[in-house]
Each structure stands twice: as C-alpha cells, then as structure tokens.
C-alpha cells in the first residue's frame, strides 16, 4: 500500500481512502488541474478542503476524465455533460435495483401472487 493510503471498511463494503498526495501520484495530475476538477464538481472528495480524501471511484473518474480529454479530445463542457449523464445513469440503475428488490421481497412474502 502506498504511504498515506489507508483502508477503511464500512459494513459490507471496503472503501479505499486515498490522500491527496497519493491521488496526484496515481493519476499523474498536477495540483492545479485537480483543483479545477474539484471546482467543476467532476470529482467530489470526502474530508475537508485542507485534507481531501479520495476513493477508488474518484480514481476511476479521474482516469475517465483524462481519457475523454486527452484520447478523445472532449472539451471541458463536454466532459461535464458526459459525467452528469453517467451520474444520472448510475442513479437510475440504483433506483431500479431498489424497486426490483422490493418487488422480489413482496413476491416472496405473498406466494399466492405467483
């Protein structure tokens, strides 16, 4: 594990918490770029402004942003739109999964409806 990285677990999940220094190292970003991405709300680290804590999800988003800009030539406005759409898809999938789970629980609790 890289220095400054700690592993915190929550019930049922393990979340990698990464310091700002480690995040910059892993993503090959400079501090100014990171600050812009946070200001644009492309990344939403946990923790305080002085000591932000990043997750593996933040690492994946940073990789996606880098690929969109460098490999595909997407401009900043386009990156914002793409990330917003991906967030909406994620929210819809979560909501759908919740509805599906509720329907399955209802069906198993009421076997006469089968």
Give the helices and strands, then pairings.
Elements: E1 5-10, E2 13-19, H1 20-27, H2 31-39, E3 46-47, E4 52-54, H3 56-71, H4 76-109
Antiparallel strand pairs: 1-2, 2-4, 3-4
Sum up the structure in keywords.
114 residues; alpha+beta; 4-stranded antiparallel beta sheet; 4 strands; disordered N terminus
Describe this structure in a few short sentences.
The protein has a single domain (5-113), classed as Multidrug-efflux Transporter Regulator, Chain: A, Domain 2 (Orthogonal Bundle). 59% of the residues lie in helices and 16% in strands.
Number of helices: 4
SSE sequence, one letter per element: EEHHEEHH
State the total count of DSSP E strands.
Answer: 4
The end-to-end span amounts to: 50 Å
Using the 3D structure, state the CATH architecture: Orthogonal Bundle
Largest sheet at a glance? 4 strands, antiparallel
Q: What is the structural class?
A: alpha+beta
**And the CATH topology?**
Multidrug-efflux Transporter Regulator, Chain: A, Domain 2
The CATH first-level class comes to Mainly Alpha
Q: Name the overall outline.
A: elongated
Which strand-content bin applies to the residues? 15-25%
* Average pLDDT level: 87
Helix content: 55-70%
Cα-based radius of gyration, to the nearest Å: 19 Å
Poorly predicted sequence stretches spanning 5 or more consecutive residues: 1-12
Widest sheet, order of strands? 1-2-4-3
Q: Quickly count the domains.
A: 1
